[in-house]
Amino acid sequence: LIPALRQAGATLHTIASESGTSAAIAGSRFGFANLTSDVDAVLSDPAIDGIVILTRHDSHASLAVRALEAGKHVFVEKPLAMTESDVDRLEVAARSTSGTLTVGFNRRFAPLTVRCQKLLAGRAGPVAILVTINAGRVPTDHWVQDPRIGGGRLLGEACHALDLVRALTGSPIEGLSVRTARDSSGMTIDDIALISVGFRDGSTAAIHYLANGSRAFPKERIECFADGKTVSIDNWRRLRSYGLGRSRIEPRRRMDKGHQAEIDRWMAMVRGASPPPIPLDEILEVSKWAIRAAEESRLRQEV
Questions:
Q1: What is each CA distance from 129 to 37, 119, 159, 201, 218, in whole angstroms?
Q2: Which of 119, 104, 102 has its CA nearest to residue 257?
């Protein structure tokens, strides 16, 4: 994200880390003016307009609340929070201060997502969406897998897919169910899961989050079915459309998951030239449903 911020014209004022060591390394590499381990100094500095939070998941909510209360524009990497009560705290801070809140749900800003939305615009009936995420294996002792620090992979990573289907349907989520794989002893494997999602307008989505596939297989595939049309996105490199006249393939020269587009939108908002990239209500909604999905995967039951 730091190169994306630089490309968007941000002034890289200060970088902070707990020990200061990683701040010094990144600061030297990317050209930050200041390095620090003092978060309070960053939040109180009037020269700083925007705060980007790229820490471990369990610190996202508390740092974001502090930054919002300091009146800053806040960009938080996903997930926004690890509990619904923390989401509620963030909502209070975002609605009662001059600060704004944005989460790194970049896939809704990918060029192929925008193209898919245009192809399905004006649909008369519901859309059915299939998302396959070939996430690959992460060791069980990795911090992302720790429910206290990382929240698990469904919260930390599959939330991307949940926000993506929310953006593609344009309709609020009404409910979801989670089915996880189990090992030979019957224990849940919560990074091999199916998340079924229902939306207010009658649309549906099935998100397959899979840690047991081949790394040679593409990482992400999205398929949308609506009104006799089908649109698919292959690993953010190619869009295929059917039922829209002649079937078409629209390739891209490089993979683009929307990181730069989201940062560009965020920087435009910081400069006062545009509204927040993602409506606050959608951020809060998706974040709460992602937390519920992760909780249900650990409880080994369906919502």
A1: 44, 14, 15, 13, 18
A2: 104
Low-confidence ranges of the chain (pLDDT < 50): 301-303
Sequence-ordered list of residues with C-beta below 8 angstroms from that of 162, at least 6 positions apart, any chain = 173, 195, 197, 207, 286, 289, 290, 293
Q: Which of 280, 297, 234 is nearest to 93 (CA)?
A: 280
Asked if the peptide bond before residue 79 counts as cis, ω within 30 degrees of 0, the response is yes
User: What pTM did the predictor assign?
Assistant: 0.94
82 neighbors 57 (Cβ within 8 angstroms): yes
CB 116 within 8 A of CB 231: yes
pLDDT digits (tens, 9 = 90+) for 18-33: 876 777 787 788 889 9
Token pair for residue 126? Answer: 């519901």
3-state DSSP call for residue 257? coil
Residues 6+ apart with CB under 8 A from 167: 105, 107, 108, 113, 117, 282
Tell me, what DSSP letter sits at residue 103?
E
> Would you state the pLDDT for residue 121?
95
